[in-house]
Every structure is written in structure tokens, then in C-alpha cells.
Amino acid sequence: MIDPAEDLTRAVEATLFAASEPMTVAEIGAYVGIDADVRRALAELAMRYEGRGINLVERGGRWLFQTAPDLAHILRREREEARKLSRAGIETLAIIAYHEPVSRAEIEAIRGVQISKGTLDVLMEAGWVRPAGRREVPGRPLTYATTAGFLAHFGLEHRRDLPGIDDLKAAGLLDPVDLAFDALEMQGRDAEQLETVDESD
């Protein structure tokens, strides 16, 4: 006797295997039936693939099969070494990840320098950044956001899993000079607030 639930699970599995990019529940439903219990099938598949060479994971609301984290090193290829990002690329990617959606002008304002068009092109070719629509202001600048591929590459389920400032400090990833300037800036603001309080007295 055919089990409808098992048939759905197999259909969802096949859909994800054939997909060229991560899929949302709604996108999967468009293939297997909009009334189908896709979430239940996904939960069942995630359990089946747990502990195997590939896992079913959710990244930013999208589902995909990926190599188990402890086996990823086996499949790395030398060509990935060519994808090393420049400092400008790393800074741009970080700004987009923490401030998305963000326009090119906003990225430049945060970095304090202009970015070349090539920097964004490299990030988009890597599949980590995508256009995210236009800002409804004069000039309607294009904005950018990260992708499910970015989350998958860095092993994140959601953007909220990005490290905070305290985590970055603990890992020694923040420039000590920048931290010193930030501390001086905070002291200056505190002094201004004290002066304002004194004047009001």
C-alpha cells in the first residue's frame, strides 16, 4: 500500500536534489503541491540525513543539502584558493552582512573610502551577495544583501548568528587602533553630555 506521507517526503527530497539553489517552503510547495505538509517532510528528511555525509539544513529560511561540516575539507578544491578576498572585499561583505539592505553609497560612507565596482562583482560571483531592490529615495540607488549561499558557506542558520562586537574583540578580529579611536569618541560624547548637564544647572 502506498504511503502518501512517504511519497511526499520522497518528492521533497527529489525537488531539493534537482534544485540549483536553496529553496523556501513555498517554492518546494509549488512543485509538490501547495496543500502538502512540506514542513513535516523537511523535518523527516533532516532527521534521516542527520549524521550522514550530507545534511539537509535551513539557511535564512531556505533549505538545501550540504556536505556534513566534518567532511567539508575532503571536497575542497585548489581553485577555491583563488577566491581569497581583498581587505576591501572582506570589509564590504561584513558591512553588507551587518547592515543589509545597504546601498553602495552607504557602504562607502561606513568604510570611509570608495569601493570599486569589481569588489561587489567578486562578492556576487561568489554567490554571497545579491541585489536587494532599490531604495525609495532620489536616484533610487540599488541596495545589496547577503544570500543563502553566504549563510551556508559560513555555517550560519540566520544573520542573527553573526558574531557580535564582544565576540569579535575576544577573537582579536577588531583593529586595536580602531578600538582606541572608538573609546576616545565615547569619552568625548560623555564629556559633551556632562557639559550639557552643567549648563542646564
Provide a descriptive summary of the structure in words:
The chain has 201 residues and is α+β, with helices and mostly antiparallel strands. The chain folds into 2 domains: 4-72, Arc Repressor Mutant, subunit A (Orthogonal Bundle), CATH 1.10.10; 83-162, Arc Repressor Mutant, subunit A. It is built from 10 helices and 5 strands; from the N terminus they run αααββααβααββααα. The strands form 2 sheets. It has a 3-stranded antiparallel sheet. Strands 1-2 form a two-stranded antiparallel ribbon. α1 crosses α2 (25-32), α1 (4-18) packs across α3 and α5 crosses α7. The longest helix has 25 residues, at 176-200.
What attributes does this structure have?
single chain; 201 residues; alpha+beta; Arc Repressor Mutant, subunit A; 2 domains; 3-stranded antiparallel sheet; two-stranded antiparallel ribbon; 10 helices
Short description:
53% of the residues lie in helices and 12% in strands.
Shape: elongated
Strand order of the largest sheet: 3-5-4
Helix proportion range = 40-55%
CATH superfamily of the largest domain: Winged helix-like DNA-binding domain superfamily/Winged helix DNA-binding domain
Going by CATH, the architecture of the largest domain would be Orthogonal Bundle
Tally of DSSP helical segments: 10
Note the gap between the termini: 85 Å
Strand content: 5-15%
Number of domains: 2
Uncertain runs? 78-82
Average pLDDT rating: 78
The chain-level structural class is alpha+beta
Give the class-level CATH name of the largest domain.
Answer: Mainly Alpha
Kindly provide the radius of gyration, computed on alpha-carbon positions and rounded to a whole number of angstroms.
22 Å
The CATH topology of the largest domain comes to: Arc Repressor Mutant, subunit A
- Biggest pleated-sheet summary: 3 strands, antiparallel
